[in-house]
Amino acid sequence: MKVKVNRLRSVAVVLAGVALTAALTGCQGGDDDSGKGKGEGSGSGSGGSVGSSATPSGGGGTAPGASPSVSASTPSGSKASPSSAAPAADTTPSAAPCADGPPTVEEVDPDEIALFRIEEIDGITDKVNLVLQHGAWGCPGKDTDGAPFVVTGEDSRWAMDQGAYVTAVTPIVESTENQRIGVQELIDWVDAHPDSGLVFRYTVGADGAIHRLEQVFTP
User: Fold this and answer.
1) How far is CA 61 from CA 29, 53, 128, 147, in A?
2) Which tens digits make up the pLDDT trace of 127-166?
3) Cβ-contact 200, 118 below 8 angstroms
4) Is the Cβ–Cβ distance between 216 and 166 less than 8 Å?
């Protein structure tokens, strides 16, 4: 009987040890699973934190591999279109209007006159009077080579110095380019061809008399 009791104790001790071992093993397994779960949970949580911190709030971040969107902004008031651009300024001089009738005082050419006669001035030997008419260039006709010089129709007298610089072209001289002649040569030709109405450009000196007289070539 004593032997049976000892055997039963031995079996009970073994069974108790096995049960204790199983319990300890179960606890360790539970701890490992719990630790693993916590680790995974922590890792998931930190992964979420990293993901949220990589992209600023408001969606301003750009995903890798995606091309950034570029929006061109135009300052207000800086748009320019061909229709709104200021036209280039026109530098072509406008043609002067031509006279189709006797010009008024405001319309006459200030630098040119038509010469009709030359008169001596009593008691004065260093000057002569030019009998002239003011005028303006008219509109050229279809059958003419150039524009006519249209006069006012009223004679004027203007003193010219006997030592004035005078040039002439055809028909006074045989040339279409201005040639210098003397004042007496001009007087002689005008006396022989009165009322010819040849056009001259003139310059006045300090004394108010004409000191330069140059014929204008007209075809």
Assistant:
1) 44, 10, 99, 81
2) 999 999 999 998 887 776 778 899 998 999 999 999 999 9
3) no
4) no
CA 175 to mean position of chain CA atoms: 48
Residue with structure tokens 């039963």? Answer: 8
Can you list the alpha helix ranges (DSSP code H) found in 143-205? 183-192
pLDDT in tens, 35-44: 444 444 444 4
Instruction: From residue 104, give the alpha-carbon distance in Å to each of 24, 58, 110, 116.
Output: 134, 82, 12, 20
Helical H segments across 55-182, by residue range: none
Q: List Cβ neighbours of 187 (8 Å cut-off, separation of 6 or more).
A: 118, 128
Q: pTM of the predicted model, to two decimals?
A: 0.55
Three-state SS letters, 130-142: EEEEEEEEECCCC
Average the pLDDT over 212-216 and give the result.
Answer: 97
Q: Which residues, in sequence order, are CB contacts of 78 under 8 Å at separation 6+? A: none
List of E strands, the chain: 112-121, 124-137, 149-151, 156-168, 179-181, 198-204, 210-215
Query: Which tokens in the block code for residue 152?
Result: 């006012």
